[in-house]
């Protein structure tokens, strides 16, 4: 009888090994007669498309004998050895099953599922899950109560003449998450009352621990939707703003280089009639003193999205070099819009050799033609394609791309990108190599640190006068409706900067407080 090894192999007449069980991981510290005793094992051979399959079954609790095993265990061991040795030397036929009945000397029992125990365990798991949810709710309520206590402690530290008696503001909207229609709370300003009480008694609010209160001075637009029309009663939202910090937590804002009186900028969805904005400190970018805030607002509305689209999908450290795109060829679809003009400027600064632009069929006044008219000129030679016409038919774009070319589709607003056609085009993009889709708002939300680095680089370029945003005109809040209707009919040549009434706060001392009617939150 061949000695027992760590590996057991079954062979047919030709000597081919059909199955192998590895027992090298067994614990050999307890042995009997220098052999492992594996109880309740059953080895079967089953045909499957002219190949054998062997299955080893064991109880859930495999036991190993010690030196004090009884005679019954020794007898069982000998039976197991005889079975395995006979399997080693037996010649198998295609339909033969090497096995013993479960009722024979193997003394095996079927592992039946105890449904009663299973249901009890399931019920216990559900109870524990419900209890965990209740505990989480209690912890969340305790944290909210602790935050309220901290705010009350801050109010007690300030002088009594600064902090008024607690009062309920009826027009304060609740804080909302980024996924909501707007990511900030707003206290809508009564402008007539504001100008009437400009020199009156003023007070300030206590921001949350992570928030900074900013006095908004300007915002910029490169396009307008239907909400800006004079006939629309819906709330108007901006996507960026610049201003001056009026209040912040020193310990938290120190890591971002913020302080009271510091000029900052941010990209956020907010109501355009806001005056004071409450926003987390990690979403603010310091603005150099030598640049104008209107230029910074235009930079965020046009140049930052263009820079992101130009380098989307590339490693960021290489994007800040003036030679990172030397010798490349660029194709821009969508016409000479404000964003595409900024993209052309950033591409030239990066060393792009040739730039091609084509527009939509209805953009006849932009002096660009459809790609179908001159596609043969750029066929197979474009390194970068930035598509502002999504959803679009990509047949011509695929022909224009070089072998290792890159396609970036700039997604429109969520409500404009809905529908069957958009989903079909997104499916086509997913099947294309080196093709990406850019949702700038989502990009800012997810890649905050990367956007901060991009904005810092663009501010340096602005300070050095390598770039100078083109401003179409300056408007007031009341003039936005008329400008928006005009911009829909005729494309803008530059950003529209809206200067808010809070610009008068710039030269006021930082300690000066503001009245309730001047407050607003983002």
Automatic annotation (TrEMBL):
Residues 1-103 are annotated as: Disordered. It holds the Pfam family ADH_zinc_N_2. Coiled coil: none annotated. Residues 61-75 have a biased composition (Low complexity). SUPFAM superfamilies: GroES-like, NAD(P)-binding Rossmann-fold domains. Transmembrane segments: none annotated. Residues 76-102 have a biased composition (Acidic residues). InterPro entries: GroES-like_sf, Lipid_raft_assoc_Zn_ADH, NAD(P)-bd_dom_sf. Residues 1-15 have a biased composition (Polar residues). It comes from the Eukaryota. PANTHER family: PROTEIN AST1-RELATED. This is Enoyl reductase (ER) domain-containing protein. It comes from Fistulifera solaris (Oleaginous diatom).
């Amino acid at each position: 009888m061949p000695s027992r090894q760590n590996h057991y192999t079954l062979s047919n007449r030709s000597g081919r090994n059909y199955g192998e069980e590895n027992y090298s991981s067994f614990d050999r510290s307890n042995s009997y007669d220098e052999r492992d005793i594996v109880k309740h094992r059953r080895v079967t051979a089953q045909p499957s498309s002219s190949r054998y399959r062997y299955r080893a079954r064991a109880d859930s609790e495999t036991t190993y004998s010690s030196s004090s095993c009884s005679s019954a265990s020794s007898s069982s061991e000998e039976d197991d050895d005889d079975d395995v040795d006979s399997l080693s030397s037996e010649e198998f036929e295609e339909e033969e099953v090497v096995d013993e009945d479960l009722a024979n000397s193997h003394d095996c029992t079927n592992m039946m599922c105890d449904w009663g125990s299973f249901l009890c365990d399931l019920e216990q798991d559900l109870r524990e899950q419900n209890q965990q949810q209740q505990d989480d709710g209690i912890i969340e309520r305790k944290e909210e109560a602790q935050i309220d206590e901290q705010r009350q402690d801050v109010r007690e530290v300030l002088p009594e003449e600064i902090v008024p008696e607690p009062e309920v503001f009826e027009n304060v909207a609740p804080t909302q998450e980024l996924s909501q229609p707007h990511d900030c709370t707003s206290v809508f300003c009564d402008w007539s009352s504001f100008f009437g009480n400009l020199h009156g008694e003023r007070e300030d609010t206590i921001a949350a621990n992570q928030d900074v209160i900013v006095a908004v001075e300007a915002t910029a637009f490169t396009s307008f939707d239907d909400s800006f029309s004079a006939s629309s009663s819906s709330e108007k939202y901006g996507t960026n703003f610049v201003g001056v910090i009026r209040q912040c937590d020193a310990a938290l804002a120190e890591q971002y280089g913020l302080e009271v009186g510091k000029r900052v900028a941010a990209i956020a969805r907010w109501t355009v009639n806001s005056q004071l904005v409450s926003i987390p400190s990690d979403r603010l970018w310091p603005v150099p003193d030598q640049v104008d805030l209107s230029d910074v607002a235009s930079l965020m509305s046009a140049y930052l999205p263009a820079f992101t689209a130009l380098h989307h999908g590339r490693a960021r450290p290489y994007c800040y070099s003036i030679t990172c795109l030397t010798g490349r060829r660029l194709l821009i679809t969508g016409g000479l819009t404000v964003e595409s003009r900024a993209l052309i400027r950033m591409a030239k600064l990066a060393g792009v050799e040739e730039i091609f632009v084509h527009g939509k069929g209805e953009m006849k006044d932009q002096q660009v033609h459809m790609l179908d008219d001159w596609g043969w000129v750029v066929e197979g030679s474009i390194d970068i394609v930035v598509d502002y016409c999504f959803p679009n038919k990509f047949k011509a774009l695929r022909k224009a791309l070089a072998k290792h070319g890159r396609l970036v589709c700039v997604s429109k607003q969520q409500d404009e990108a809905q529908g069957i056609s958009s989903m079909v085009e997104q499916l086509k993009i997913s099947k294309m190599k080196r093709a990406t889709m850019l949702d700038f708002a989502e990009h800012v939300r997810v890649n905050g640190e990367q956007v901060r680095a991009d904005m810092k680089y663009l501010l340096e370029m602005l300070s050095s006068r390598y770039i100078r945003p083109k401003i179409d005109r300056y408007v007031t809040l009341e003039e936005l409706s008329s400008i928006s209707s005009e911009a829909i009919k005729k494309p803008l040549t530059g950003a529209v900067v809206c200067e808010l009434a809070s610009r008068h706060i710039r030269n006021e001392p930082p300690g000066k407080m503001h009245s309730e009617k001047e407050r607003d939150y983002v």
